[in-house]
Amino acid sequence: MRTIFILLMLCSVPMPMAAQPQAAVNLMPIPTNLRMGTGRLAIDPSFSVAISANSDPRLQRAVERFLNDLRRQTGMLPVNVRVTDASKATLVIRAEHANKEVLALGEDESYSLDVTSSSAKLEAPTTLGALHGLQTFLQLVATTTDGFAVPALSIQDKPRFPWRGLLIDVGRHFIPLDVLKRNLDGMAAVKLNVLHWHLSENQGFRVESKKFPKLHEMGSDGLFYTQDEIRDLIAYAQERGIRVMPEFDMPGHSTAWFVGYPELASAPGPYQIERKWGVFDPAMDPTQERTYKFLDDFIGEMAGLFPDQYFHIGGDEVNGKQWEANPKIQEFKRSHGIKNNEDLQAYFNKRVQEIVSKHGKTMVGWDEILRPDLPKNIVVQSWRGQESLAAAAKQGYRGLLSHGYYVDLMWSAERHYSFDPLGGPGANLTPEEKQRVLGGEACMWGEYVSPENIDSRIWPRTAAIAERLWSPQEVRDVNSMYQRMEKVSRKLDWLGLTHNSGYAPMLRRMAGSDNISALRALADVVEPVKDYSRGELAAAEPTSADPLNRLVDAARPESLAARKFAGQVDQLLSGKADADAKAQIRSLLILWRDNQAKLQPLADQSFLLKEVVPISRDLSSLGSAGLSAMDYLESGQHAPADWATEQRGLVEEAKKPKAQLLLMIAPSIQRLIQASAGQATGSSSNQGDR
Amino acid sequence: MRTIFILLMLCSVPMPMAAQPQAAVNLMPIPTNLRMGTGRLAIDPSFSVAISANSDPRLQRAVERFLNDLRRQTGMLPVNVRVTDASKATLVIRAEHANKEVLALGEDESYSLDVTSSSAKLEAPTTLGALHGLQTFLQLVATTTDGFAVPALSIQDKPRFPWRGLLIDVGRHFIPLDVLKRNLDGMAAVKLNVLHWHLSENQGFRVESKKFPKLHEMGSDGLFYTQDEIRDLIAYAQERGIRVMPEFDMPGHSTAWFVGYPELASAPGPYQIERKWGVFDPAMDPTQERTYKFLDDFIGEMAGLFPDQYFHIGGDEVNGKQWEANPKIQEFKRSHGIKNNEDLQAYFNKRVQEIVSKHGKTMVGWDEILRPDLPKNIVVQSWRGQESLAAAAKQGYRGLLSHGYYVDLMWSAERHYSFDPLGGPGANLTPEEKQRVLGGEACMWGEYVSPENIDSRIWPRTAAIAERLWSPQEVRDVNSMYQRMEKVSRKLDWLGLTHNSGYAPMLRRMAGSDNISALRALADVVEPVKDYSRGELAAAEPTSADPLNRLVDAARPESLAARKFAGQVDQLLSGKADADAKAQIRSLLILWRDNQAKLQPLADQSFLLKEVVPISRDLSSLGSAGLSAMDYLESGQHAPADWATEQRGLVEEAKKPKAQLLLMIAPSIQRLIQASAGQATGSSSNQGDR
């Protein structure tokens, strides 16, 4: 076992041997080292747990939560599955040491889990490791022929990177505490360990400040967290092994601050909370001392509220317009020999860094802040590309990768999964430089999320990113990832996350009816448009007051139904489809062909469905085209070139975004048509995002 | 309008005229008086509400909740739909008076709601009425062609009965506070106004007692509510216009008390928490003064904790065995001239009534307590039949109907709906006696409910009971009730109730797979066995520690799919089915015929599905038989008598409970078979529970 472990760590090529046992168990992230045993351990009402060695109350509470989760997953009752003493317990947990009250970066998170057909043993140097091991155990529980059970196995596990985060932007749309809590539960389930809480934006300042109450009173529409609520959330996170790093974005992204404190800005007020999306002009005035006095007081207050060592000051996307327009600022630049706005921001960053440092914290910022005059202990978060991460590491800075992990861009899990903090330019770093790459963070930016749909934008794709950050670099079998992601997605349901359960209610609201099968058939194969094109394609400029109740808000970022269909078409075109497989393809095509006729009556009743009729028509056209292509393919005769050209036109039309949605089966239908006409089809993996 | 109102109140026959407008709106319960207007009021992001006249903080908080509910229902955001001032508001609310801090029985709950295409006005004498009006408004919001909207209409509404309750038994299975809270939200949505909290049972004592801490410490498995939690729940209920009446069942149903305090019992201890279901021997010793001393102290403590005027002492199902076996008790009976155990219990009740009264409360008890020596101010809750309710009213006692409203018995909504507190013997009461019938209570007894499935046992059927207790007696169109119940069921989803959303996750757990379509097809047409036969049909005696994760725990109490199929068969047999309708029946029959082949692979993988294979086979047999019957029916030739007899045998087999489930399409298939053989079929409404 040790051998496999070492091999995994040293090899830089994919290892089918290591991937083999992984596929057999539904774990995400895949552990560093796993060996399957024989038989399985029954998880029945008499199952019990004991903690031996230390009596860390955090571990005791984690075990209570573990038992609750286990009960929920299995439908067992509070009088089932209990804590007992070590001599009688089914699962014995030994964690050598408690962690510090405030979790620190880089604590030992390793654990080992040994399961036989009669008992289980979880061992870890610290409580943190034991927490991860309990999550692994929960993922292993499955319904079997003779009861719930965990397969016999042996796991030694530890994270590849010490910083595995999820950024949640609560500035653009406020996200209530209970929604954040269930997402912390989800993070713990996939072993993420940092919540990066993006707390201020042009559209809202979300933290109660006792020193500067006009920040939350005037900058939040009344939608902010009290300091008690923040302490509550931090405690909730720490219980689950998750650090909470606050971000207060400055000097840009700061309109909401200026509503109450216009004197901080580089242009005179008054200011109003921004309702639109984008990069805006307002920026703090970096030339006046009162800005730094304010920030000193403010950061001092926040440093007391947020116990984590790291403090994020944003630092991104300053367009410089207010600075250019302000003669006093221009004069300051001249008199201080500051050549341009980038240098002016660097001056600002340096001053802010000194303040952050004075209050005992380590500064983190977006990659724009990277300038050699900042001390080496800061952390740079790379969002514009992997190059800046490598550059930072080379210059001696620690860094985090977020480029590639923006879940608001509606990319596929596969695409996120392909980004590696040590991939691309990072692959050429020296071992010492690589050590400076701390990990990465998935980023849930908030333009188009509400409490209702945010879970469906975070999950399950973030589980794939979590695996990238935890598991050995060589773990990259995409099919295995998808299989396991679907399983873990269902496990997350038990935590109350709504990424699956919220889908049908949103469709029912749109339809104004229970009868949503036609709408669902359409919704299952569309995705929201990618990257930043939602705003570009909008009929009217989107605002933060737009209800998020359209199909684009409910549709999943990634259509697994379309992905599966692409696989079925692949199988067909490679000659591997049997009669059953062909019949399945046909029945889907018939469903789609006939779907618009069923959807139209719903659309006639609902203002929310009017806009989806054109894409629904496209779906029907594609269904018909696909069926004709199937007929040609099965007849053994090539389709006429004219027909193929005409159908190709339909497909091109169907590929155009409509109602800010993409019809994800279009490329597969195109391949069917091409094949039926005897043309080369390429493979499904060449389809852009796929 | 006044005319219609008076007619409704005077008529004793069903009134199609009155029922007509009711069917047009999705309200449950139906208001006393409703007149449809022209057009509709848009509910868009600019919708606003104002409170004029009083400034009751309870009403202000209710309006905040109303706006939250409206946002959830429509997918609008916190910055949409706001409170404003009366001159600008879309909906203006005027409630003349605040209610008392502690809600009392019989307060004015009436309201009127007028909606035009440009504004709405809600008026009520008290905050309570306004609360009900807001719920009516929420039910009226629908998805339309040009936005969310409420139809223009005019409603004058008030409840028929002042006591409209739901009993939740938390003694047999503990139900956590959050589950109770979401059910209180559901109660408020359908205008129920009493939570009857059944807090002690043989299987558990669920309240923290500071005077007698061994009650909850030893009698609850650690599953109890602290006094703070109880105050929290009561406040939550009162905010929603709901009174909370506690029940501490005595002298029977009290084993859990005796675990800590065996000296209260009529036989020496020690006692253990009861794990089985049924009527047990342990009963308080009614002959010793220390029993009354204890109850005086205990009831005194609880009277301070529960502010409601009414205090339920149970009083049901004392089997007398401990009393018979105790010579001291027998001697007491002789020396006090007490002839039998009923008289002994009457003596106990009288003593307890004095204690309850001393602590300022009014006693409520189950119908066994009805004895002429009790004062006339007590309330009798009738569970054994409607006769006892009428008898109580005749003797001058106030009463509540629960017979007919036991939702744990898995009856259809139609059956519950048919019971009227003033039906049966109650119809012959004098007007003065009728006044004593305060209303009724749905009862959710706890043998087979857990936090996971309790909502699905309460909802949506309890909405039909709520309508019976609120709406005019003449409202009894069953088809209209079902249509509206399905709508209100979906509205309840937005409150977080899990009666719909919990179904698929339970099926997925059973299947150990996402692929549950075959299991769902079966689950949709079965129901748990009725009345008390679940225990009788169990392979091993059920206990309170049995996980509730089987199909019988997930299957809905009433299969609306089977009900719908019965309607389709009715239509067919009455010659009213067109080709489409016939095709729909056939496609269901084919689905069922082929279902077992799809379900078997799931059952091969899961211990929870083994038991459902026989009933799944029956479903396939019925599908086949139904298809053959269709063939005969459409051929115009009678099926051979031999064939019909043979099929009839299959149906009889399929009617037998299996895995404690009933296959609800069996009677409809039987009718198809009979019709195909040219035999009389009866009507679907003769099918027992249907």
Q: What class, by secondary structure content of chain A? A: alpha/beta
* Biggest beta sheet summary of chain A: 8 strands, mixed
Q: Give the oligomer, counting copies of the same chain as homo and different chains as hetero.
A: homodimer
Strand content of chain A: 15-25%
Question: In total, how many domains does the architecture of chain A comprise?
Answer: 3
N/C terminus separation of chain A: 35 Å
Q: Which two chains form the greatest contact, residue counts included?
A: A-B, 48 and 48 residues
Estimate the helix proportion of chain A, in percent: 40-55%
- Uncertain parts of chain A: 1-23, 686-690
Mean pLDDT of chain A: 94
Radius of gyration of chain A: 27 Å
| CATH topology title of the largest domain in chain A | TIM Barrel
User: What gross morphology of chain A would you assign?
Assistant: globular
Give the SSE layout.
The structure is a homodimer of 690-residue chains.
Chain A: H1 2-10, H2 16-24, E1 33-42, E2 48-53, H3 57-74, E3 82-83, E4 91-97, E5 111-115, E6 120-126, H4 127-140, E7 142-144, E8 147-157, E9 163-169, H5 177-189, E10 194-198, E11 200-201, E12 204-205, H6 214-219, H7 227-239, E13 243-250, H8 255-260, H9 289-305, E14 310-314, H10 321-325, H11 327-335, H12 341-358, E15 362-366, E16 379-382, H13 386-394, E17 398-401, H14 413-418, H15 431-435, E18 437-444, H16 454-458, H17 461-470, H18 478-493, H19 503-511, H20 517-523, E19 526-528, H21 533-537, H22 551-554, H23 560-573, H24 579-593, H25 595-605, H26 613-635, H27 641-655, E20 661-663, H28 666-676
Parallel strand pairs in A: 2-3, 2-4, 4-6, 9-10, 9-18, 10-13, 13-14, 14-15, 15-16, 16-17, 17-18
Antiparallel strand pairs in A: 1-8, 5-6, 5-8, 7-8, 11-12, 19-20
Helix pairs in contact in A: 3-4, 5-7, 9-12, 20-25, 23-28, 24-26, 25-26, 26-27, 26-28, 27-28
